[in-house]
Write a structure and sequence with these properties.
Elements (H helix, E strand, L loop, with lengths): L5 E2 L1 H19 L1 H20 L1 H9 L3 H5 L3 E6 L2 H13 L3 E7 L7 E7 L3 H6 L3 E7 L7 H12 L6 H13 L2 E2 H14 L5 E5 H10 L1 H7 L8 E3 L5 H7 L23 E6 L3 E7 L2 E6 L3 E6 L5 H18 L4 H11 L7 H6 L5 E5 L1 H5 L8 H6 L3 E5 L7 H10 L15 H8 L6 H21 L1
Parallel strand pairs: 2-5, 7-10
Antiparallel strand pairs: 1-6, 2-8, 3-4, 4-5, 9-12, 10-11, 13-14
The structure holds 2-oxoadipic acid and nickel (II) ion.
Keywords: Dioxygenase, Iron, Oxidoreductase
InterPro entries: HGLS, YdcJ_bac-like
EC number: 1.13.11.93
């Protein structure tokens, strides 16, 4: 039983995501500018499109719109990752999905810590894309051992947060005062440090192997490297970024603009070069932090995802080197083969939907019909696309690369190792497709039960 004096994990996550946003806005002023631009474009989009506004309100999406969507960090060791799992659990965030970025030439594998049930997602869907550095992929023994030694000497968690995590685990929750303390202690792990823990030569040696290795190894903690609000019109925000003083990445990642948005579209402003003081008092710079935006669409079934992956693969050959406008035009052409009405996405089982009774359905008595499409046609049942809550490895690689100065290393490829990731995590990652399928079938069951009495 939950203790009435305990603050819910949803509430702790909400407080944390707001505190994180405030910290990041103070640390990275351009991020504040990005938030203003996104809010402005969202307002204009809703004004232009009252049907969209009504739909969002009708499906409880308005609250979600204004709150932060995701952030990302990169950690260096199994112990750090396992402790993060426990830290995020306090906020009802569990690891979902395994992403192999070695395929894209980046020496990490990742998961997303996020809430999973409907109520939690509606409250605040905040997620953290979390990557674990794969030192085992560094070829030079000397460099690998040097990096491991440096990482061995740091503790990215405060004693206070360790104590509060343990308390949460033993008492099954935290009271209001402890919840606030937890938020401020946990935030310390994600803070930026202007001082590196290593000298400039060490930084440069690690940087020469891969910029990301220097980013993970040379600092006291895994600074949050971006936060990502949700926009209702990513094309418009991309277009307006330069006027607002931001340097957008070259192309928007993910599917093209569509009537029925699918999965996830993302873009970012490029990482800023920031002054760093290295051990031995030498000045240098490091480039890691940026701002990102995302526009989310419906989650795809395995069949829909296979179609997405095939079309994306086809488009990649044709979009290489194109400007964003041209890139989007070609994508739209290739994706003409992906059905673009909710009815087709549903009938062809390409996407996940939540089913619920319409007003007429609630009024109707028992009906003999058990076929959901027929019940939809009769106006008794309506559906809503289930929002995709996860990430896309090809897009993530594009985001990594545009912020790492194109740094990649083909030699890392072909090294997916989910077992090693789960061993480091000391837990399993959930399968995102199973989560969407379970939400869809639970909604079907309850609709049919209501109508069949
Ligand atoms: C993570 C990049 C991936 C996304 O939205 O796909 C990501 C990173 O740069 O650490 O955040
Ligand atoms: Ni991101």
């Amino acid at each position: 039983m939950s203790d009435p004096t305990h603050v819910s994990s949803n509430e702790i996550r909400d407080r944390f995501s707001k505190a994180m946003s405030a910290m990041y806005q103070a640390e990275v002023p351009q991020y504040e500018t990005l938030l203003e631009l996104v809010a402005q474009v969202n307002r204009e989009t809703l004004e232009r499109n009252p049907a969209l506004a009504e739909r969002l309100a009708n499906f409880d999406e308005m609250n979600r719109l204004g709150v932060e969507r995701h952030g990302a960090i990169r950690v260096g060791s199994a112990d750090e990752l396992a402790m993060l799992r426990r830290l995020f659990a306090v906020m009802g965030m569990v690891p979902v999905g395994y992403y192999d970025l070695s395929e894209a030439g980046v020496p990490v594998h990742s998961t997303a810590f996020r809430p999973v049930d409907d109520e939690a997602l509606a409250y605040n869907p905040f997620r953290v894309f979390t990557s674990l550095l794969r030192l085992e992929l560094i070829e030079s023994d000397a460099l690998r051992e040097r990096a491991a030694r440096i990482l061995d000497h740091r503790d990215i968690f405060t004693p206070g947060v360790r104590e509060l995590i343990a308390r949460h685990e033993s008492q099954g929750g935290l009271d209001d005062t402890d919840a606030d303390r937890f938020v401020s202690e946990a935030l310390e792990t994600f803070r930026w440090h202007k001082d590196a823990t290593v000298d400039l030569d060490t930084y440069e040696a690690l940087h020469a192997e891969h910029r990301l290795i220097a980013d993970v190894v040379c600092f006291r903690g895994p600074h949050i490297n971006h936060l990502t609000p949700r926009t209702l019109d990513i094309d418009e925000v991309q277009r307006r970024m330069p006027q607002a003083g931001m340097n957008p990445k070259d192309v928007i990642e993910g599917p093209p603009r569509r009537d029925c948005p699918i999965l996830l579209r993302q873009t970012s402003f490029k990482a800023l070069e920031e002054p760093i003081r290295f051990a031995g008092e030498r000045q240098g710079t490091h480039t890691a932090r940026f701002g990102e935006i995302e526009q989310r669409g419906v989650a795809l079934t395995a069949k829909g995802r296979a179609l997405y992956d095939r079309l994306l693969g086809e488009s990649r050959r044709r979009t290489a080197g194109l400007s964003n406008d041209e890139h989007q035009r070609v994508l739209a052409e290739v994706f003409a083969d992906f059905p673009d009405t909710e009815a087709e996405l549903r009938r062809q089982e390409l996407a996940f939907f939540e089913y619920r009774l319409t007003e007429a359905g609630r009024q109707s008595g028992r009906v003999g019909e058990t076929h959901l499409e027929a019940l939809i046609e009769q106006g008794l049942v309506e559906t809503r696309p289930i929002t995709y809550e996860d990430f896309l490895p090809v897009s993530a690689a594009g985001i990594f690369q545009s912020n790492l100065g194109g740094g990649q290393n083909e030699a890392y490829a072909g090294n997916a190792n989910r077992d090693a990731f789960e061993a480091a995590l000391q837990g399993k990652v959930l399968d995102e497709l199973e989560l969407y399928a379970a939400r869809e079938s639970a909604s079907c069951r309850s609709v049919l039960q209501a109508l069949q009495g």
